[in-house]
Design goal:
4% of the residues lie in helices and 55% in strands. The protein is mainly beta.
């Protein structure tokens, strides 16, 4: 069984969220109270950490940081604010 969920994102360069394994990103949009990422998932799957990266138009993108990341979408900026471009990659976990 699959369902659609959403996660609220912050307007920061790097953040982590937990979503069920195998989730598929559908859309990203700004709403009245923030930026949201919609994803299709199996809610019975184990959660995994995903790193979300955010870059503004004209901002620097560090190659080391974006390596292996996949594009999610762009949230248009307003007036003097730049457009925000979101990417994701699986968070690497440290081995014990």
């Amino acid at each position: 069984m699959r369902t659609i969920k959403k996660a609220k994102l912050m307007q920061i360069s790097i953040q982590s969220i937990e979503i069920p394994e195998g989730s598929k990103f559908l859309d990203i949009k700004e709403m009245e109270d923030g930026i949201y990422l919609w994803f299709e998932c199996d809610p019975n799957k184990k959660n995994e950490k995903v790193t979300i990266l955010c870059f503004g138009t004209g901002g620097l993108i560090l190659e080391k940081l974006i390596k292996g990341a996949k594009y999610i979408g762009t949230v248009p900026g307003a007036a003097e604010c730049p457009d925000l471009h979101y990417y994701y990659k699986k968070t690497k976990t440290k081995s014990a």
